[in-house]
Amino acid sequence: MTPFLPHTLLALTAVLSLSIAALVPVPPSLDPFYNPPAGFEAEEPGTILRNRTVDPALFGLLPNGAEGYQLLYRTSAIDGSAIADVTTVFVPLIGAMTDRFVAFQNPYDSSATICNPSYTYQLGSVQTDLITTIIALAMQLFIGRGAPDIVGVGYSGGSIATGWAAQLQPTYAPELSIKGWSSGGTPANITGVSVFVDNTAVSGFLPAALNGLSRNSSYGATLKPLIDSIITPYGQAYLDFANVNCGPADILAFTGQSIFETHFQTKGRDLLYDPAFQYVLADCLMGQRKNETPTAPVFMFHANNDEIIPYENATTLYNEWCDFGADVQFTTYGSGGHLTTEVVSLLAQLEFTASAFAGTVPGGCSMKTSLNNTLNPLDFALDLEPIVVNLLTVLLNLGEQDANLLENIAGLHNTSGVQS
Ligand SMILES: *[C@@H]1O[C@H](CO)[C@@H](O)[C@H](O)[C@H]1NC(C)=O
Ligand SMILES: *[C@@H]1O[C@H](CO)[C@@H](O)[C@H](O)[C@H]1NC(C)=O
Ligand SMILES: *[C@@H]1O[C@H](CO)[C@@H](O)[C@H](O)[C@H]1NC(C)=O
Ligand SMILES: *[C@@H]1O[C@H](CO)[C@@H](O)[C@H](O)[C@H]1NC(C)=O
Ligand SMILES: *[C@@H]1O[C@H](CO)[C@@H](O)[C@H](O)[C@H]1NC(C)=O
Ligand SMILES: *[C@@H]1O[C@H](CO)[C@@H](O)[C@H](O)[C@H]1NC(C)=O
Prior knowledge:
Blueprint: H1 4-18, E1 48-54, E2 57-58, E3 62-63, E4 66-76, E5 82-92, E6 100-105, H2 117-120, H3 130-140, E7 149-155, H4 157-172, E8 178-184, H5 190-197, H6 205-213, H7 220-230, H8 233-242, H9 247-253, H10 275-283, E9 298-303, H11 311-323, E10 328-333, H12 338-344, H13 346-358, E11 366-370, H14 385-398, H15 405-419
Parallel strand pairs: 6-7, 7-8, 8-9, 9-10, 10-11
Antiparallel strand pairs: 1-4, 2-3, 4-5
Helix pairs in contact: 1-9, 3-14, 6-8, 14-15
Bound molecules: 2-acetamido-2-deoxy-beta-D-glucopyranose (6 copies).
Family: Belongs to the AB hydrolase superfamily. Lipase family.
Signal peptide: 1-21
GO molecular function: triacylglycerol lipase activity
C-alpha cells in the first residue's frame, strides 16, 4: 500500500520549514551528536558524554522563552547493555527556579529517529510528528514551574517512561530527590494495549512498538529471531515504514489493520501464545514486583472511555501499586477520550506537580471521578493563557469524545499548518 497521505504531511511541514532552511537542524540519523564517543560503555550510568546548546521552538518555529541544552548521557538499556540517550533541558529565560526540575516524558510513539523530541523541539526542525508537537505545548506549561527536587510527568506513551521511571528509580537511582510522579493514560499492560488497539483506527502504533521491542538493546535477543522467522513481506513493509516515519504517519498507513493476522506474520493470532512473545510482553507489565514500586507520591489519571489505552489495566496497576504500599491518587475522567483527557487534566497535573514540590500530597491511596470536560484558560497564570488557548484550538478540532481519532488526526495536519 502506498501511504500517500503522510507524504502530503511531510510536504506540508517541509514547506513550512523552507523559509528558515538555513537554520534547519540536522536530522538525528545524520547528526554526530547522537553517536557516543568510543569507550562510553565504561562510564557510570548518568555520565554526560556530550552537551550543546540548541534553539528551542514550538512547532519548530516559535521560540519558547527558554534556553535549550541537550545532553548525551550514558544509561542502561532493558537488556542491561550500555547505551547513550539524549535529553533536552529547558531553562526559562525569565524567573527560572533553580531548586526544582520537571522531568517531562514526551510520548513520541515511534521507532524512527526523525521523530526524536530532541530534534522536533528545535527551531527549524521539520515537524514530522504532530503528536510530539502538541505535547510540546503541554510541556510548555511545566517549564518554569519546576541537587534540585524532581517531579516526573508523562501521558500515554510518555507514561510508559514515567511509570517505569517511577518503578525503577528506588533501585536504579535512589540518590535522586524525587518528589512525585504524574502519570496519565498509563499503558500498564502492553498485552492489553496491543489487543485493544489492534484492528482499530490506531493500530498503526503496533508496528512501531514491534520495532522498538525488537531492538538489540531491548528484547532483540528474544524477539528479533521470532519476528524475522514469521514476518511476511507485507508485514515487513510496515515495520520498515514505521522505522522511518512518526506516529501520525504510522497511524494513517496502518489504520484498521491487524498484526495478529497471517498476512502480517504467519502465526496469526497464535503469536499471542508464543512463549517468546509472551515473555517479552509479560516483562513489560508494570506493577508486578514489590521492589519495583514508586516511593514518591503518584498521580494517576485515565479516561474511563479511553479508546487507546485500556482503563481497567491502569486501575489494575493502581491496585497493585497500592497493595505494595505506594501512595497513589487516581482520577477517573468520565467525559472525553484519550486526547481530550490529556488536555482537560492539565490543571490537575500542574496542581499535583506544585503540591509534590511542596511535599503536601496526602499519603495513602484514593480514587475519585471528574466529570468536568472543560478547561478554562483563565485558571492558568496569565503568561500561560496563550498556550492553553492554542491547546484548546487543537482540542476543538479533535472533537470531544475522540470518537473518530483517525479523521481527527488527519484534520490536525491541516490545523497545525494554520497555526504555524
Ligand atoms: C560541556 O561540554 C564542554 C566541552 O564541549 C565541556 O568542557 C563541559 O564540561 C561540558 N559540560 C558538562 C556539564 O558536561
Ligand atoms: C494484561 O492484559 C491481558 C490481555 O488483555 C490480560 O489477559 C491480563 O490479565 C492483563 N494483566 C494484567 C495484570 O493487567
Ligand atoms: C544486533 O545484534 C545482532 C546479533 O548479535 C548483530 O548481528 C547486529 O549487528 C546488532 N545490530 C546492531 C544495530 O547493533
Ligand atoms: C487489560 O485490558 C484488556 C484490553 O481491554 C482487557 O481484555 C483485560 O481484561 C484487561 N485486564 C486487566 C487485568 O485489567
Ligand atoms: C470545570 O473546570 C473549569 C475549568 O477549570 C472550572 O472553571 C469549572 O468551575 C469546573 N466545573 C465544575 C463543575 O467543577
Ligand atoms: C485538509 O483540508 C482540506 C481543505 O479543507 C481538505 O480538502 C483535506 O481533505 C484536508 N486534509 C486532511 C488530511 O484532512
